[in-house]
Amino acid sequence: MRPGFDPATQPWVVANESLPAVPAGLLTPDRLRGTLNQPSTWTLELSRDTDLRYPGREGTPVPAAVLIPLVTRENGVHIMLTQRAAHLHDHAGQISFPGGRIETSDPTPVAAALREAHEETGLPANHVEVLGSMPPYLTATGFSIIPVVSLVRPGFELAPDAFEVAEVFEVPLSFLMDPANHRLYEARLDDGRVRNYYGMPYGKHFIWGATAGMLRNLYHLLRNGLQPR
């Protein structure tokens, strides 16, 4: 299922809305732990795709889960992302978190996210410390995705599934938690509808759609949960 337009070339504006960056000094493993266990004081940004489902995807959303892996590198925390293989039916070639459908054999969404991350990238579960889950995110392709936020201890070796994953790479968390790097795009569809979506270009990679939307919500969560002491 492809969007029918080039998402990286549509008109855009910076989506900072006078919002501050989360200070890099607060994006440490010790400060990140426990942020999802605090009372919710942040406002969820709903998917801008909710009313623009692709044809044939208007029914009950398919439950899914993704892992948001925050890798604790010596030079700061980084987010691990994947580029999906170009031949896949859903989200082909897009930048995504590792994850997928919640199977009946998965006892919880967290278990599904960990399973999918291991299957897609080879990330071993014993390097993953789950911090908690964010509210579901509804996509235009008809998935209801639960993002599972985690810290990942370095020293792991990846073994990406070449059928599903074209590349695994990392982006500094501080870059993605700065709204100056968030763009709001507008695409006019052939049927006259207008689709708005977030995009976060980083080097040769264009992070957009559901992944960018979930990162935007992670920003709101951390901005409100990581207040200076």
TrEMBL record:
Its cofactor is Mn(2+); Mg(2+). The keyword Magnesium applies. It comes from the Bacteria. Residues 61-193 form the Nudix hydrolase domain. InterPro entries: CoAse, NUDIX_hydrolase-like_dom_sf, NUDIX_hydrolase_dom. Keywords: Hydrolase, Magnesium, Manganese, Metal-binding. Gene3D superfamilies: Nucleoside Triphosphate Pyrophosphohydrolase. PANTHER family: MITOCHONDRIAL COENZYME A DIPHOSPHATASE NUDT8, NUDIX HYDROLASE. This is Hydrolase, NUDIX family.
